[in-house]
Amino acid sequence: MNALMMAGPHWGAAGGIAPVFPIIWGLFWAGFIALAVVGWRRGWWGAHRAQAAAGPAASPTASAERILAERYARGEMTDDEYFERVSVLKGGSH
Question: Which residue pairs from 54-63 have beta carbons closer than 8 angstroms and sit at least 24 positions apart in sequence?
Fold first, then answer.
């Protein structure tokens, strides 16, 4: 203990706390690695995230709505026809 007190002033500007820095640095890296493992397992990034980005399954009428939108864009139906058919698909009254 006496040897540590004698060497203390020669450790530089940090004084007696300099030996704590390697411990803090080690804890930082341990925390970083733990966060990376938790993030990978929960799907915050990586292969799990790509699956989550696909989102929930599309509605059963999604393909029909897409076809109607394409026909409307090509000019095969009027505004009224398009909106009437979309409302029927979504369960509303025309």
Answer: 61/89, 61/90
